[in-house]
Amino acid sequence: MLLRFAAVFLGALLGINADLEPCHLANDVVDQVVKEANSHARANSHESLEVDGFSQEVSLSLLGLHLWDVHLELNDGIVYSLATLSRSGDINECSNVTQKSVEGTFTYDTMQITFKNMKASLLNWEISGKFTYKFKPYFDVIFTQTNMECSPGPLVLQRTSDAEYEIVTDNSWTSWLVSKAVHYSLKNGDASPIISRFIQRSWVSIDCYFGWYYCAGETK
Fold first, then answer.
1. What sign results for the dihedral spanned by CA atoms 67, 68, 69, 70?
2. Is there a contact between 82 and 201 (Cβ–Cβ < 8 Å)?
3. What whole-number distance in Å separates Cα of residue 116 and Cα of residue 131?
4. Helix, strand or coil, per DSSP, at residue 177
5. Helices and strands in the chain, H and E counts
6. What's the CA gap between 174 and 62, in Å, rounded?
7. What distance in Å separates the CA atoms of residue 177 and residue 181, rounded to the nearest whole number?
8. Cβ neighbourhood burial of 130 (10 Å; 0-12, 13-18, 19+)
């Protein structure tokens, strides 16, 4: 009894909720939620979403020596397929008297961002065409349900793999040269502006579709 009192007192002192239940694996529950969420997104034709355009200066370097900056402008973007969400590893669910949450790493089987309107320039050369970025993302999600709301926290990108850049333009030597410069610069440089567009739209998709089934327990 004394030990129980001491534990409660210490928990209160440290801000620990005495009603906290042990966390447990929720792989089966989450797999079902993901299945329903992906099906719902496909049924609503929300496998793809528009993304904001942006412009970026990408440094072109060789052996650590800065050569030139490549200016890249991308517009009319679409991200897909947001209906291929899956978990990557185990998912934990924890709960207490006021809330429950699932936490783990998720991914998309296929992810692609295509900008139909691309302009790129290097020195006095400028080209236009279509730009596509393909990759496999791994991101951490905490989805929390309380009496007042149910929503994901910020998506935290853990890593990406299988990154590919594709530039479609005309067959001139100028287009070939600038395309190579853009590809090399991005492959060895900063792709965060593109990734940030993916994070923004993925958060919306996860909040809408994963949240519909995890929070409300709805089925189609």
1. negative
2. yes
3. 7
4. helix
5. 5, 11
6. 20
7. 6
8. middle
Domains and CATH numbers, the chain: 21-216 (3.15.10)
Distances (CA, A) of 151 to 99, 190, 197, 215: 12, 30, 19, 8
Query: What are the pLDDT digits (tens) for 63-77?
Result: 677 777 889 999 999
Q: CA–CA distance from 71 to each of 78, 122, 125, 152 (Å)?
A: 21, 7, 10, 35
Number of residues that make up the chain: 220
Count other Cβ atoms within 10 Å, centred on residue 154. Answer: 10
pLDDT digits (tens, 9 = 90+) for 90-105: 999 998 888 888 999 9
Instruction: Map tokens 């296929």 to a residue.
Output: 110
Is 0.85 topped by the overall pTM? no
What's the token pair of residue 78?
């679409």
What would the two tokens of residue 112 be?
């692609």
